[in-house]
Amino acid sequence: MDHSYEELRSATLDILSGREPAYSQDSSQYSQLQNAVSDLLVSRASGTRTVNTRLSPLDSQLFLELFWDCFVKG
Length: 74
Known about the structure:
The chain has 74 residues and is mostly helical. The chain has one domain (5-73). It is 64% helix and 0% strand. Helix 1 (5-17) packs across helix 2. It is globular and about 35 Å long. The termini are far apart.
């Protein structure tokens, strides 16, 4: 399922701020953060905790853009 930039941004900021737990081992690494965001989005949609999911190719591209936007803006 593809998500909007804002959905990805919201989930990413929730994980980085600690408002939502990251079930990945270490959310400080790019790929693990990406997986944690995917897990959170799937969990929000299904209503149950989900782990080890992957973003769709379109979401992965959007997440990369989001990551660099956040990196540049601090």
